[in-house]
Design a protein that fits this description.
By secondary structure, the protein is mostly helical. The chain contains 11 helices and 4 strands. The longest helix has 34 residues. 35% of the residues are buried.
């Protein structure tokens, strides 16, 4: 009887493996087809107008970004709150900024994310201990990304102030892909040691500067915890690469290795 149960168990596992492979193959083919879809002129007009970094990208990366946007919008659902009505402009502008984080490397398109919740401006989370302050954005490990549309739009238009709400929240999504937001996204083999060494040193330095009220290139909100540090330095990486590299060359090198990009190549 035990041998029969063992055989049944093995067969079930094989069937589950085959099912998982079939689903993965279907998803891969669907994404490939979506990636190659023509990009609507109206969508390109939206990102040209509202996502300043797009205009700085070389043609190859612009084309790749548009393909990623196609896939992203085919898989993610946008939900309006506090009276806001979701438009194509909102969807495309948010998707373009989020997909900047996916350029030039293999991606699974923020696999745990299904819904982006949009508010017209700063919103209040009744479950937060700081509900009276109002939030601009949130990213949940296996839940939604929540964004203020006004601040998402502002961040897209201003590409050199080191502040971008969408990049910040979607950097959290990258960090959370392994199930925990700890400032360490899924890294290639052999990268973890240098990542941990450099980011730990820089994070501790920022905490000291915040405590001692000393000037810092990085937004001091990054001193909150390791997860916020990764999200904050990602904003600076894409928007202020020249100054970032000059002031923090080792940390900049770690991000170029992770993101497989060097924004200095296309910075103004």
């Amino acid at each position: 009887m035990s041998n029969q149960l063992a055989l049944i168990f093995v067969l079930i596992m094989l069937l589950l493996a085959a099912l998982f492979y079939a689903v993965s193959l279907i998803k891969k083919r669907r994404r490939k087809a979506a990636f190659k879809l023509p990009f609507p002129p109206a969508w390109e007009a939206h990102i040209t107008k509202h996502v300043s970094l797009y205009k700085s990208l070389p043609q190859a990366l612009q084309d790749e970004l548009k393909g990623h946007i196609n896939v992203f919008l085919s898989e993610k659902y946008f939900e309006g709150h506090n009276g806001i009505e979701i438009t194509d402009e909102m969807r495309v502008v948010v998707a373009a900024q989020a997909c900047l984080l996916l350029l030039n490397r293999e991606t699974n398109y923020f696999p745990h994310l299904k819904t982006i919740m949009m508010y017209p401006s700063a919103f209040r989370n009744p479950n937060s201990e700081q509900a009276h302050l109002g939030n601009l954005g949130e990213s949940w490990t296996r839940g939604p990304v929540v964004l203020s549309w006004g601040h998402s739009l502002h961040g897209g238009k201003n590409d050199n102030d080191g502040s971008n709400l969408v990049i910040h929240e979607f950097a959290h999504q990258l960090d959370q892909e392994d199930g925990v937001g700890d400032g360490t996204p899924m890294l290639e083999h052999g990268h973890i040691r240098t990542w941990a060494k450099v980011l730990s040193k820089e994070f501790n330095s920022l905490k000291i500067k915040k405590k001692c009220k000393r000037k810092s290139f990085f937004n001091k909100y990054g001193a909150t915890n390791a997860a916020e540090f990764f999200a904050v330095i990602s904003e600076h990486f894409f928007e202020q690469p020249k100054t970032f590299k000059k002031k923090h060359p080792d940390l900049y090198a770690e991000l170029t290795k992770y993101y497989k990009l060097d924004p200095i190549d296309w910075a103004d």
